[in-house]
Amino acid sequence: MAERIADVYFAPARVKKWKYSESLPGKLERLLKKIGLPRYFEKDEWVAIKTHFGSEGAHRVVRPVFLRKVVEALRSIGAKPFITDTVRIKGLDYLEVANQNGINHLSCGAPVVLADGLYGNDNIMVKAGEILGEIAVASVIYDVPAMVVCSHFKGHINAGFGGAIKNLAMGAVSGSHRHCGWRCGRGAMHTIGEGMLVWDREKCVLCLQCEEICPLECIEFKGGEFTYNDERCWRCGRCTRVCPEGALVLPADDELFMRSLAEAAMAVLSTFKPGKVIYINFLTEIQPECDCMPAADVAVVQDQGILISDDIVAIEQASLDLIMGKAPLPESLAEEMGIKQGDDILMGLNRKPYLLQIEEAERLGLGVRKYNLITLS
């Protein structure tokens, strides 16, 4: 039997002709025609456009103009799209963040909804694999028959990089379940269900950044002593990320975490029939950190363009290959860290074995790493 090779369509970011069709929005229109949306979606079918709404201060998300092009393409074949994400902070606040970042019905041309409800606990337990067992998939994602996964490709402090796999593993899974809490949600991946925050009193300078950044207001300092609500905390790790002195630590296992990302993505995709999900990776404004942080750093590498495929493994591999060895941009974190052209920029930024998530996704049968890159002419 011949080895399967996936098709990945690519639109470069460079504009060499001053024509709309050569702009990135114009190229995205062409990509959506190239992949053939009627192969995947039907007339009157509801289609979720899964993206990340960002955070207050983190503005380098998939731009509304691109989301609108996806909406228009789906409407052109008679499908009924909506834009969605799971709750990262309190639901009403998160909708307001989306609006501030330009993601709303008027700008994108489709309803914007929270996939797991205003309180982030509207979800269904789904079998996930040998590490996670089960995971809480957002009910809207669980119920909808089709999906377009629009991912901003970037670095990530825990995952090494964030693309389509992480967009599903973390973004289509709730932070907590109404009965088993964070142990059934994203926290199960961050700590494999066991980790607890460890505070080092000697290192702490009481800057209170951890308290300020906690999306669930779990952290409090009483009389100079660190306390947090263990049951409410969903182990996102933002507090440890911003601690300037390393006084907060969230124990975790990098290998298990990467493998659990693939398992969670598999659980999400198991709720769809074959051929009902496609992926679009936006290799633009490639910053070193996740869009869930309260700020966005400058890009570490030049914009590469947009990829589209029906294979989640292939599009991730192609995304990595496109930035591998590229020159770090001046005055970026990558240059500050001494990363040079030809280096593995993602490994240099976050020191995480990020390839494991792709390798595990392929092992689980989610796709193949070998691909045929088809570049728009």
List the domain count as a whole number.
2
Helix-strand makeup class: alpha/beta
CATH architecture of the largest domain: 3-Layer(aba) Sandwich
What name does CATH use for the topology of the largest domain?
Answer: Rossmann fold
The total count of helices amounts to: 14
> What general outline do the C-alpha atoms trace?
globular
Give me the side-by-side strand order of the main sheet.
Answer: 4-3-2-7-14-15-1-16
> What is the terminal-to-terminal distance?
32 Å
Q: Which spans have pLDDT < 50 for at least 5 consecutive residues?
A: none
Main beta sheet, described? 8 strands, mixed
The SSE string, one letter per element, is EHEHEHHEEEHEEEHHEHEEHEHEEHHHHE
Q: Regarding CATH, which class of the largest domain? A: Alpha Beta
| Mean pLDDT score | 93
Strand % is: 15-25%
Note down, in words, how this protein is organized.
Helix 1 runs parallel beside helix 2 (64-76) and helix 10 (254-269) crosses helix 14. The longest helix is centred in the C-terminal third of the chain and has 16 residues, at 254-269. This protein has an 8-stranded mixed β-sheet, with helices on both faces. The protein has 377 residues and is of the alpha/beta class. It starts with 5 loop residues before the first strand and ends with a strand. The chain is built from 14 helices and 16 strands. Strand 8 (154-156) and strand 9 form a beta hairpin. 30% of the residues lie in helices and 20% in strands. It has 2 domains: 6-189 and 253-375, Rossmann fold (3-Layer(aba) Sandwich); 196-249, Alpha-Beta Plaits.
